[in-house]
Design a protein that fits this description.
The structure holds two protein chains of two kinds. By secondary structure, chain A is mainly beta. Chain A contains no helices and eleven strands. In chain A, the strands form two sheets. In chain A, strands 2, 4, 5, 9, 10 and 11 form a six-stranded mixed beta sheet that branches. Chain A is globular, with a radius of gyration of 13 Å. Chain B is mostly beta strands. In chain B, the strands form two sheets. In chain B, strands 2, 4, 5, 6, 9, 10 and 11 form a seven-stranded mixed beta sheet that branches. A four-stranded antiparallel beta sheet of chain B has the order 1-3-8-7, with no helix packed on it. Classes of the chains: A mainly beta, B mainly beta. At the A-B interface, strand 4, strand 5, strand 9 and strand 10 of A face strand 5 of B.
Chain lengths: ~110, ~110
């Protein structure tokens, strides 16, 4: 089983749609969690951290369920500019970050 | 605002040739990393340096060596390139090892023929 698993997609949605991405991780000792965004042929960039209580940043909401070892990202009112690959990232103590393979989102007009 | 700078951005090698990818950061970060990204495989950690003077293997270190030259610079060397090392290589840095915010360079696209 891979350490961090994501549905690769692609998710094809119209502008204004709400879309959710899921991610599962295998190591229960994982301590912190993040979502990164990667545009085509560009470097990954941090989108947001994921806190135990859930957190929101504008149209983006991240949630963590430690019992189920599950992370989610919800994007409301999708924009064309949201088209990208979203990477689920997990940090375990004493190691570097572990990246999922990413979920591709395509928003169309 | 240079951030993390990688060179070269593109390189074509023949099997067996050697080369070094250079990486420098100007954010006074302690930790630096080398990842490779392949289609369908995601980002995989090759080597990292938690702080100046230390380096550690990541998930896929075979065929690579690294040098943390100073706090700013972390280089990745391919001693004898193989077609399996065709990939996009990303250097990244962070303030400290266990922080979630990595700052990535723009990537180096390497093709080994």
């Amino acid at each position: 089983r891979k350490e961090v698993e994501q549905d690769p997609g692609p998710f094809n949605v119209p502008e204004g749609a709400t879309v959710a991405f899921n991610c599962t991780y295998s190591n229960s000792a994982s301590q912190s969690f993040f979502w990164y965004r990667q545009d085509c042929r560009k470097e990954p960039k941090l989108l947001m951290s994921v806190y135990s209580s859930g957190n929101e940043d504008g149209r983006f909401t991240a949630q963590l369920n430690r019992a189920s070892q599950y992370i989610s990202l919800l994007i409301r009112d999708s924009k064309l500019s949201d088209s990208a690959t979203y990477l689920c990232v997990v940090n375990q103590a004493g190691t570097a970050l572990i990246f999922g393979k990413g979920t591709t989102l395509s928003v169309s007009s | 605002n240079a951030g993390v700078t990688q060179t070269p951005k593109f390189q074509v090698l023949k099997t067996g040739q050697s080369m070094t990818l250079q990486c420098a950061q100007d954010m006074n970060h302690n930790s630096m990393y080398w990842y490779r990204q392949d289609p369908g495989m995601g980002l995989r950690l090759i080597y990292y340096s938690a702080s100046e003077g230390t380096t550690d293997k990541g998930e896929v270190p075979n065929g690579y060596n690294v040098s943390r030259l100073n706090k700013r610079e972390f280089s990745l060397r391919l001693e004898s390139a193989a077609p399996s090392q065709t990939s996009v290589y990303f250097c990244a840095s962070s303030a400290r090892q266990n922080t979630g915010e990595l700052f990535f360079g723009e990537g180096s696209r390497l093709t080994v023929l």
